[in-house]
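Worked example

This section walks through a single chain of length 154. The input is the sequence exactly as stored; nothing has been trimmed or padded.
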Amino acid sequence: MQIRCIRTLLLASVVFPLLPDSASAMGLAAVASVSGLHPQETAAGAPLGKLNVPSKAMAGNCITRVSPHYPQTTGDSPTATTVIVRVVIWKSGNVTPLRAISGPSALQDEAMNTVRLWKYKPLARDGEFIDVTTDIPVDFDPAKPGGVVTHPTR
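Given that input, the structure is written out below as tokens.
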């Protein structure tokens, strides 16, 4: 029985990336990232982020935050700005950036790389944790150092 399961999983890992419609039947979805599309497990084939949650509602659930690095500039003096990144916060509390939806294009990659390191307390609905989609504001301030880890809810 165990060999049959391993064989099925191996077959699925080879075949289903080639068949996008079949992947959703197996509870997989493609998640976009800077380096391309990656299959991501969802609950029983549900769409990414079962629930759209306002960013202010999820802000209180952030348990680990890393500040972004402001890239070196050669032109004008850098100014504080914000990039908004649309993400899925999984039941595990891990964050998968989908895409930057606003902000300077020069800062969007750094914003997505930074948000990938954040950790959230998962949202529960009817006693069960669920995947949610939300927009996260990433504040860039040239006066603050990047890479600083904080724990806002502790």
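What to look for: Confidence is low (pLDDT under 50) at residues 1-46.
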